[in-house]
Each structure stands twice: as C-alpha cells, then as structure tokens.
C-alpha cells in the first residue's frame, strides 16, 4: 500500500500532479458515438454545447476489423473540434486484456491528450486494473507534456468488479466515476436475461392470493409488480462513489424505441444518487438531460424549505410536513445541482426562475 503522503505525487517524472477533487462540470449524459463511422463523426461538432459528454467508443459495438479506423477517427475528431467549456470529450478504450488497448491509450494520450478529459475503462475487476492504467497514463502524460491529468472512469460490469467496487474507487486520485454496465454484468453473473439494461417482465413480486372460506385461491387474479433488476448494484455503486468523492452513472438502455421505460430507468438512477446516464441515440440525450436536472417544482420546494429553515438547524412545519436539519440538507443537494446546471444552461435557468408548467410533460 502507498503512503497517503505519496498519493498525490505524479506516478512518472514530468507527469501532471493528480487532482484532489473531481472537476465539477455538467455530467447528465454521456453520448456514445463510433468515431470510425463517418456519418456519426460528422454530427459530433453540432452536438458540442448541447451534450454534456461526448464519448468516442472504441470497445464493444465496434467490429474487430474497425478498431484502428475508430481510433484514428477519434484522433481526427479531437484535433478538429473545439469542445468549449461545457462539453467534455471522453473515450471508452478496449478492455485491458484485449490486443488493442495499449495502442488506444498510447495514441490518444500522446496525440490528443490535451483534448481528452476522461478515459472510460471497461470490465474493471479490481484495484490492480486501475493501478496499471494509472501508471501508464502518467508515463504517457509525461511523454506528451500534458499540463493536467487525464481522469479514469471504470465500468462496473463483472461480478468481481462489483465485489471490489470500494477498492476500485479508492485506487487512485485519477478516478472520476463509475458506470453500471448491465449487459456485460448480466452475462458475467449468469443472469438469465438477454437485454441491454432496463427491466424484465419476469422479475416481479405478486400479491398474496385472495381466500375463500380461509382457503387460498392460488390461481385467482393477483396483481404483480415488476421489480428493478439493477437496484442493488446501482445502490452499491452510489455508496462506493459517494464515499470516495466520485460520480456514479447509470449505463446503457438498449431499447431505443422504448423512451418511456428508458426515462423510468434513468429516473430511478437519478433518485438513487446517479448524476447521469449513457445515451446510445440522440433521443436519449434529451431524456437524460431532463431526468438528471432537478425539476422546477422540486427546486421551488427546496428553496422554500431552505428559506424556512433559516440557519439550517431545528424543525419547522411546512404544508403539514416536518422539515429539519436533515431534510434541509437534501434540499441543499438539489439546489446546488440546479444552480450548477443553470449556470451553464440558460433555458434551465429560466425554468428554475419561472417554474415552467410544461417541464414535467416535456419530451
Ligand atoms: C456496457 O458496456 C454494458 O455491458 O452494459
Ligand atoms: Mg460492456
């Protein structure tokens, strides 16, 4: 184990000093694109400013014989695009046991490392994976003469990764956050699903049977309620991230047409503490931005509670409900996020000022 005194020293001579805090930037949506696909690549410049994070994907969904084209495409896009203050550029590199990852990291950091905010590393299993990437990135940063460190985001998508989630989060000051990878995680856990994220109609809880003369009618109509397959993992990921000052994200929702279930899944993640989700199609960008921004109604309520609570201690009654030191802290979490997002999004700022009634129904 490294001494805490050494934790914030660069891991290579000439590499930038590690950050002490994850930079605060809008992070509601990570929009995936294939940098080797010319049609998709051409749309990237138009998305700058309206998407919080643009991610050039090199891993799964890119065919083996297109890996090099995707990497070269991302270098081109990074060089030719001005991402501005509010849109970050990330990449998802290939897995650490693949033949491509060494060239992914070497090429991207040395050629466009100054444009790259975060490297997403898939299938992270434990702290040893982060240590490997941490040292390699420091060597490459030193070679490229970078002034700020490239951060690391790990995908939680193996049973071992979930088991080791706390040590993954604490493995390096370079850690920015985690995403749930439900598709790979389902396969690794040997879950019997075939979907990319979201729920399953077979995973449910059913009401007890009605009785006639004390005898249960097992086959009577008994309402059933679908449960969230991902609740445990998201909650565990959120705790590990919060305890280590990192940002948790829900991952992909593969049924692009089902915008309703996508919104539900994203909202569950938002309520549990996630800051954002992936988008696999432009339609999901809008869903994520809406869901991961506090609603104007919640913001207005939070403001009332904060005002009513004065110095934030004690208890008051508001609309028949007790508010105290703890509920005011929840309101402050919402307000802090709302104010941060409003500072970069004038439309949102207007909605928070005016409580637009269209907000809840907007799509
Ligand atoms: C994402 O990479 C997933 O496997 O769900
Ligand atoms: Mg995956």
Detailed description of the structure:
By secondary structure, this protein is of the alpha/beta class. It has 2 domains: 29-201 and 225-292, Phosphoenolpyruvate-binding domains (TIM Barrel, Alpha-Beta Barrel); 297-362, no CATH class. Helix content is 41%, strand content 15%. It has helices at residues 38-47, 67-80, 101-112, 127-144, 159-163, 165-169, 182-189, 231-244, 259-272, 282-291, 296-308, 325-342, 346-354; strands at residues 29-33, 53-57, 88-92, 118-121, 151-156, 175-180, 204-206, 211-212, 215-216, 224-226, 247-249, 277-279, 315-318, 321-324. An 8-stranded parallel beta sheet has the order 11-6-5-4-3-2-1-12. A two-stranded antiparallel sheet has the order 7-10. Strands 8-9 form a two-stranded antiparallel sheet. A hairpin with a 2-residue loop joins strand 13 (315-318) and strand 14 (321-324). Helix 2 (67-80) runs parallel beside helix 3 (101-112), helix 3 (101-112) runs parallel beside helix 4 and helix 9 runs parallel beside helix 10. The protein starts with 28 loop residues before the first strand and ends in a 9-residue tail after the last helix. The relative contact order is 0.10. The structure holds glyoxylic acid and magnesium ion. Magnesium ion (MG) binds next to helix 7.
């Amino acid at each position: 184990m490294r001494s805490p005194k050494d934790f914030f020293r660069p891991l290579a001579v000439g590499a930038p000093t590690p950050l002490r805090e994850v930079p605060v930037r809008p992070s509601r949506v990570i929009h995936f694109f294939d940098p080797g696909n010319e049609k998709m690549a051409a749309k990237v410049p138009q998305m700058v400013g309206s998407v919080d994070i643009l991610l050039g994907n090199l891993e799964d969904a890119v065919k083996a014989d297109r890996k090099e084209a995707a990497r070269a495409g991302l270098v081109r896009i990074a060089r030719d695009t001005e991402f501005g203050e509010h849109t970050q550029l990330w990449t998802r590199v290939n897995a650490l046991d693949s033949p491509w990852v060494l060239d992914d990291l070497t090429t991207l950091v040395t050629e466009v490392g100054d444009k790259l905010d975060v490297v997403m590393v898939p299938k992270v299993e434990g702290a040893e994976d982060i240590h490997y990437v941490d040292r390699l990135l420091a060597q490459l940063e030193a070679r490229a003469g970078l002034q700020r460190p490239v951060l690391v985001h790990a995908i939680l998508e193996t049973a071992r990764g979930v088991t080791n989630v706390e040590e993954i989060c604490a493995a390096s000051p370079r850690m920015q956050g985690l995403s749930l990878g439900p598709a790979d995680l389902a396969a690794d856990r040997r879950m019997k699903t075939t979907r990319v994220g979201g729920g399953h109609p077979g995973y449910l809880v059913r009401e007890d049977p009605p009785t006639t003369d004390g005898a249960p009618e097992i086959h009577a109509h008994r309402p059933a309620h679908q449960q969230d397959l991902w609740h445990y993992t998201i909650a565990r990921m959120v705790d590990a991230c919060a305890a280590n000052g990192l940002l948790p994200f829900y991952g992909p929702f593969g049924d692009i047409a089902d915008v309703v279930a996508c919104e539900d899944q994203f909202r569950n993640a938002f309520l549990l503490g996630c800051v954002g989700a992936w988008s696999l199609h432009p339609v999901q960008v809008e869903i994520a931005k809406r869901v991961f921004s506090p609603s104007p109604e919640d913001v207005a309520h939070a403001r009332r509670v904060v005002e009513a609570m004065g110095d934030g201690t004690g208890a008051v009654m508001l609309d028949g409900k007790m508010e105290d030191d703890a509920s005011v802290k929840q309101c402050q979490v919402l307000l802090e996020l709302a104010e941060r997002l409003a500072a970069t999004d004038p439309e949102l700022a207007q909605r928070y000022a005016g409580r637009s009634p269209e907000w809840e129904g907007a799509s």
